[in-house]
Each structure stands twice: as structure tokens, then as C-alpha cells.
Amino acid sequence: MSRSAIAILSTENLLHNLNVIKNHVGSAKIIAMIKANAYGHGIRTVASKLDGLVDLLGVASIDEAIALRKHGVRSPIILMQGVFESNELLLASVEHFHVVFNNFQQLEWLDKIILPRALHAWIKIDTGMGRLGFDLDQAYSVYERLMNHRSLIKPIHVMSHFSAADIIDHPLNQEQIERFKNFTMLIESSGSQLSLCNSAAIFNFPQCHYHYVRPGLALYGVSPLQGRCAEDLGLKPVMSLQTSLISVRTFKKGSLIGYGGRYSCPQDMPIGIIAFGYGDGYPITARDGTPILVNGIKCSLVGRVSMDMIAVDLRACPTAGIGDPVVLWGEDLPIEHITPFTSNISWDILTGVQHRVKFLWTRI
Ligand SMILES: Cc1ncc(COP(=O)(O)O)c(C=O)c1O
């Protein structure tokens, strides 16, 4: 029998989350963020399931976009970081990819190249994220330059990105909203479409939905908001990580469990060993007490996470034996309940799920 680490992925929940988001944003169009292997869920399958149901698929690079085209995905695709070299503009134009321009190097490449057909283009402006995008004092002149560019389909569109949308009263949010609004007032009659919201902003700042929203985490059924779980938002987890116990032993009071002897048994107690470790994508930073379901009963992780194994305190489930089912996160144990026991965020835990885990998608 092979190792039993399985990610069950729910098509129904993915489509449910998409509908929740659609209902929430009304007429705004959806850019489904499927970069980073669709947040660990498998970019090809997620893209196929969303194909034709969303307005754009958001990827980080042209490699991801080409892989989707080869896989038969026909929906329009947007390269969120734009191109990384001049030749990618050619491919993007042939494949009708939307390209985000966020720096002057990309503009130079555009000026020097002759494209077979005009490109769908976006300008990214930096309203306060401090990452990619044109500074606000340059943004309007770049916008005009792009609007007059021979190689682009007009109008070009405009996006920016929040840095703290998950914290509703973070002062940066209002500053970013204000700066975005000020920029859009300069281009009011241009017909350009606008996009500002990631998942957290979709829920926290409904006044900012504009023409396109860009949900990532929420699509996968995980809450992007601090202190609110997915269920509160009507979302359902797409991924359920399941495995099983491969050992159950009773340890004496004072026994040390796992690398470094981090956990000392406070009494004689049963300890289970689970076939899943950081080599599968379980966060190495998980502390003692991180919840784990064994036979559907909430138990606690004990000791340091190993590459292929985790130890679990079975005092809450004393009859558990080898082969019994374990859920690490999923519908009955939202990842938002795991994250506070780690130094991670839900985004990186999901994207960290490794290829050696078996992926099984449910059909609808
Ligand atoms: C520019 C941009 N928009 C939208 C998203 C989606 O964010 P979230 O997963 O928080 O919805 C991301 C994610 O990294 C992003 O970089």
C-alpha cells in the first residue's frame, strides 16, 4: 500500500466560492487568480474548471499562461507581472494575453518591438503597496504614453494593489483608496477599466470593486480576513488534506517526542504518528496544540514537524489505531484554524503543498 497523503479537491466548492464572489461583486468582472499553481490546488485543473466562467485568469508569468493554452484553456489570461523579456511581448500578442506594464524597462521593450497584433494592456500604479507599479507622479504620463502607443488595444486598463486590505481599519487602506480615486479622476472619460480589489478588499471595501476584482484566496474557500473564517463569508474550502495514522504507541510521562525533544509527555499517553510532514507541505512552524482531526475528533499536534511525519496527542481519541483517518485541514477543520498556531499565512501554507501528495478532484 502506498503512502496515504491525499488532497481531495472539491469542484463543487470551487464553483460555489466563485458564485459567492460573483454575488458579492454584482456587475464587476472576475480576474480569477490562479498563479502559483492555483495556490497549490493545481493550475491546469483549476483553470479548466473556471474556463469560460470568469473574465480573466490571472497568472504570474507567461510560462504559466502558455501551459494553460497547451492544456486547452481558452479563457483570456492576464500576465500579472507583465513580461520579463522583450520576446514575451510577441508571444503575448499571438496568444491574446493581457499584459500588465509596471516598469520603464517593459515600456522600452514595447517601443522597440513590432508585434503581429495589438496587445491588451494594463498599467499598474503603485498607490502604496511599495512593490510593482509606476509611482503616482509618473503614472499619468505613462498612462498617456500607453494610450497613444501603436502596439496596444485602446483603452488600456488600470490596476493597483492593496497592501493591508485584510486589516479593515489599517490607515494605508484609505490612503490607497484615495490615491487610486485621484488617479481615476484624471482619466474619467477614457473608457479605461479599473481594478483594485483582492479577496480581502472584495469583502472589506465593496465601494472599490470598480470594473474587475481579483480574488485569489477566497476562490479556494479560505478567509482572507483576520478574525473571520471562511464560513462567515459563505465560502467553503476547496482543499481537504487527508492522511492516516501509521503508528500508535503509549508513551510514559516525561517521554520526549520528535526532533529536539520539543514535547515532553505530561502523563502516560497515546501518541499517533501521521504520514504527512513538511516534505508534503505541512508547515514546519506549527506549534504544539495545532489542531488535527483523527477519526473526526479534534486532537493536537505535539513535537516538531518532521519531513514525512507529524506526531499527534491522542488523549482525545484513545481508541484510535493504525490506518485511522486524519484530516490536517479541510471542510471540518478550516486552514484559518491552523494558521494561528504557525508563523505562516494561509496563502503560503496552501501554495506549499507538494507534488508527492496525491491530488483527487471531485466531480460535480
Ligand atoms: C496583484 C494581485 N492581485 C490579486 C491577488 C490575489 O490576492 P488574494 O489571494 O489575497 O485574493 C494577488 C495575490 O498575490 C496579487 O498579487
Describe the protein's architecture and organization.
The protein is elongated, with a radius of gyration of 23 Å. It contains 10 helices and 18 strands. The chain has 2 domains: 210 residues, Alpha-Beta Barrel (TIM Barrel); 124 residues, Lyase, Ornithine Decarboxylase, Chain A, domain 1. The protein starts with 5 loop residues before the first strand and ends with a strand. The longest helix is centred in the middle third of the chain and has 16 residues. Strands 8-7-6-5-4-3-2-9 form an 8-stranded parallel sheet. A 6-stranded antiparallel beta barrel has the order 10-13-16-15-14-17. It has 364 residues and is an alpha/beta fold. The chain binds pyridoxal-5'-phosphate. The site of pyridoxal-5'-phosphate has 12 residues, from helix 9. Pyridoxal-5'-phosphate binds next to helix 9.
